[in-house]
Design a protein that fits this description.
single chain, about 230 residues, alpha/beta, Spore Coat Polysaccharide Biosynthesis Protein SpsA, Chain A, six-stranded mixed β-sheet, about 25% strand, globular
């Protein structure tokens, strides 16, 4: 089963494209403005009945899913790619100390594709070595992120380190890489309406993210080669 978690910003909005695509699957919406996104995801995971074969979709409320075959692709991908713990639609094979997966030479290090909206109303399609990949990725963009059910059953986003909104996606990817899982890209096209401004809260969580992983002995820019593969799944 595909199950969706949609954190909203204090309203009851549900991504309309999910309702059109998903018929038998479940959609959970958390619009509690007193919880940040780390807490919303943890709270909702605790309410869900998740099986090992499920795929949990963490998706922002400003995402439009443009691929009507998303659920079939997810089921097929995770059944074939037994090594992938988290997947997304766009991500990077190197993570810079500047703090953003997009702050790299995208022609070399970015994988996947997405349509990015803007305040001007102009859409910017981004396609960088599109298609499926699970070889060298270290992080995917959390605007829409897919997690294997066997992991989601016991997974908890790091509310002890972070507050507010940012870095739940790359931190979660790093944690699974440490456990020996791979990060994947799936060829599913979505449109992301918001650019996500880099405000003070982003900078605060960026510093926390950098400090956390440097204190564990990693050196930025981080590549997959730095993660030990002997810890098992």
């Amino acid at each position: 089963m595909i199950q969706y978690i949609v954190p909203t910003k204090g309203n009851a909005k549900v991504v309309p494209s999910i309702a059109k695509i998903s018929t038998n699957n479940k959609i959970f919406v958390d619009n509690d403005s007193n919880r940040n996104i780390f807490e919303k995801y943890n709270h909702t995971l605790g309410l869900m009945n998740i099986s090992d074969d499920d795929v949990i979709v963490f998706v922002h409320d400003d995402i439009e899913i443009l691929d009507e075959y998303i659920e079939k692709k997810l089921e097929m991908y995770f059944s074939i790619k037994k090594n992938v713990g988290i997947a997304g639609v766009i991500g990077t094979t190197i993570f810079p100390k500047m703090g953003g997966w997009w702050m790299v030479d995208r022609t070399r290090f970015t994988r996947g594709r997405i349509v990015q909206g803007s305040p001007t109303g102009i859409d910017y399609p981004m396609t960088e070595q599109g298609g499926m990949d699970d070889t060298h990725l270290v992080a995917v963009d959390g605007c829409i992120m897919f997690m294997r059910g066997s992991i989601a059953k016991t997974f908890s986003f790091d509310i002890d380190t972070y507050t507010a909104y940012h870095f739940y996606d790359c931190d979660s990817c790093f944690r699974l890489l440490e456990q020996g899982w791979d990060i994947g890209i799936i060829d599913i096209l979505v449109k992301h309406e918001s650019e996500g401004p880099l405000d003070d809260l982003w900078r605060i969580n960026k510093d926390k993210f950098i400090n956390k992983w440097e204190s564990k002995g990693y050196t930025f820019p981080i590549t997959k080669q730095q993660f030990k593969k002997d810890k098992g799944k």
